[in-house]
Specification:
A hairpin with a 2-residue loop joins strand 7 (175-183) and strand 8 (186-187). The chain has helices at residues 2-44, 46-52, 63-68, 112-122; strands at residues 59-61, 85-94, 97-105, 126-129, 136-139, 145-147, 175-183, 186-187, 228-230, 236-240, 243-246, 273-276, 286-290, 295-297, 335-337, 343-347, 350-353, 362-366, 372-374, 381-385, 389-396, 399-403, 407-414, 420-428, 435-437, 440-447, 450-459, 470-473, 478-482. Strands 1, 2, 3, 4, 5, 6, 7 and 8 form an eight-stranded antiparallel sheet that branches. The protein is rod-shaped, with a radius of gyration of 51 Å. By secondary structure, the protein is of the alpha+beta class.
């Protein structure tokens, strides 16, 4: 018997619970139907409602008004399943924007749990005055909220309550509501629709700043890609590739570790700029921009080079690298310095001191004795180079021609390998008669150690064997090697 009694009690409890759920579901449908009817009525009579609604004194729309306008059927129950009488209060807090609320008075107070179910069943515009916090009207799932004082105990345009009795409408805890927002005659609900609603773009628009209360830290892990939050300072963050990242210009993307880590650069990414945190030569970071085909350095590149097509102007230029004078250099025109700070440039692929002042330091020379040149050559002379290096080579001669129809005179420095290194020449045209010839020349060459031949030669217009060419060197034919000052 005890078991049967317990089972009976359980069945009764389940039956009561089911009955309450059914009541809540019915009440939600009643409020939603009443709200839809009121919404249609306000749209059709927008100017009339707006004329009597103010920011503090609402216009009231009761069931009788909606039935008379054909918005509700005549047999519609004006009370919900909990015995609460429904009506609509309409405020105009901002010019041209009506704020309407379906409210309920009287009847049996509904518990907070059931109210939450009713509000959710109504939808995004559903809400309630909860016993836990009667000072606030809260939307379903906390989607919106309005101070209860905005509608509670306000003198309306006809001075009556929802049931038609004299007085102000009171918003008590335990009653459901439905929000109806209007803007310039068009319905604008109090919630933001997750999906597009055909012909209703305003349902996807926010009319107030959106505040993100989820505070995250840049670089921290996240799991929901596309999630949006903010930093402690208010910067917008989003979840990208498993990390919270700050948002900025689409042309500035995340830094990479090295130049080799930059993604491919194509026309679609032209203008994107990224930072390589370390570089192959020197200290990073380095900045690069995609020009449509490759990543171009905005300043110093990965190899430590800086390119400028125009003129570079600077108050001072610090050359941090040092070279060894006289050694090979790959790029003609480069500028560097030796260890003592003197400036050198790359000339003919050899590091040479800028200015090349070779004039005052003769380190070796050759001056032949006075002799006649008959035929092609005078007796050769020799000059020995002991220290390889870059030298200025000065060749010169003074000669007197006695005869000859066309005469040329040459002074040549010949390398140990037989190649002519530097030549000084002078020609005297036919018919010029006797006279002086003084060929001079200056060359800048790198000489290896060894013995170099100095060859003085002459010729006429016919051949070296012609006896018509006779010249006398006046003791002044010579070759000198000049080093830098």
């Amino acid at each position: 018997m005890a078991i049967i009694a317990a089972a009976t009690v359980g069945l009764v409890a389940m039956s009561d619970l089911y009955a309450e759920d059914a009541k809540a579901s019915i009440a939600a449908g009643q409020v939603r139907s009443f709200g839809n009817a009121a919404q249609s009525y306000i749209k059709d009579n927008y100017a009339a409602v707006q004329a009597v609604a103010t920011d503090t004194a609402p216009a009231i729309i009761d069931a009788a008004t909606l039935v008379a306008a054909g918005a509700l059927p005549s047999d519609f129950a004006t009370r919900n399943s909990f015995g609460q009488t429904m009506c609509v209060l309409v405020l105009e807090p901002t010019a041209g924007r009506l704020q309407a609320l379906v409210v309920s008075e009287g009847g049996r107070s509904i518990d907070d749990l059931s109210l939450g179910g009713i509000a959710s069943t109504i939808g995004g515009s559903g809400g309630a005055v909860y016993d836990a916090d009667p000072a606030v009207i809260r939307g379903a799932s906390g989607g919106w909220q309005v101070p209860a004082a905005a509608f509670d105990d306000r003198t309306n345009n006809i001075g009556r309550r929802c049931d038609g009795t004299v007085g102000n409408v009171r918003l008590a805890a335990g009653t459901p509501v439905m929000a109806l927002w209007f803007e310039n005659g068009a319905t604008s609900t109090a919630f933001l629709s997750r999906d597009a609603v055909p012909g209703r773009p305003e349902l996807n628009e926010m009319n107030t700043p959106l505040v993100l209360n989820s505070i995250q830290i840049v670089g921290d892990a996240c799991t929901r890609l596309g999630a949006v939050a903010r930093s402690a300072a208010g910067g917008v963050l989003s979840c990208q590739s498993g990390q919270w990242k700050a948002q900025g210009s689409s042309f500035w993307d995340d830094p990479v570790a090295t130049y080799a880590d930059l993604p491919s650069c194509a026309a679609g990414s032209m203008g994107q700029t990224r930072v390589a945190m370390s570089s192959t030569v020197g200290l990073g970071p380095r900045v690069y921009t995609c020009n449509g085909t490759s990543w171009a350095a905005l300043a110093v590149d990965d190899s430590g080079n800086l390119s400028a097509l125009g003129t570079v102007s600077a108050g001072k230029l610090l050359l941090s690298d040092s070279i060894v004078k006289g050694t090979f250099c790959p790029v003609v025109g480069q500028v560097s310095k030796v260890s003592n700070g003197e400036v050198y440039s790359c000339k003919n692929n050899v590091w040479t001191r800028a200015g090349n002042n070779f004039s005052s330091n003769t380190i070796a020379g050759y001056t032949p004795s006075n002799q006649s040149v008959s035929g092609c050559y005078a007796a050769p002379g020799y000059l020995t180079v002991t220290t390889p290096g870059y030298y200025g080579i000065n060749v010169e001669a003074n000669s007197y021609r006695y005869s000859g129809s066309f005469v040329s005179l040459h002074v040549t420095l010949i390398s140990p390998g037989g190649a002519g290194v530097c030549v000084a020449s002078e020609n005297m045209q036919a018919g010029g008669g006797a006279g002086y010839m003084s060929p001079t020349g200056f060359c800048l060459e790198h000489l290896d150690a060894g013995t170099y031949q100095i060859l003085v030669s002459g010729s006429d217009a016919s051949s070296c064997s012609t006896s018509s060419l006779y010249m006398m060197f006046g003791g002044a034919a010579r070759v000198r090697l000049l080093s830098e000052d």
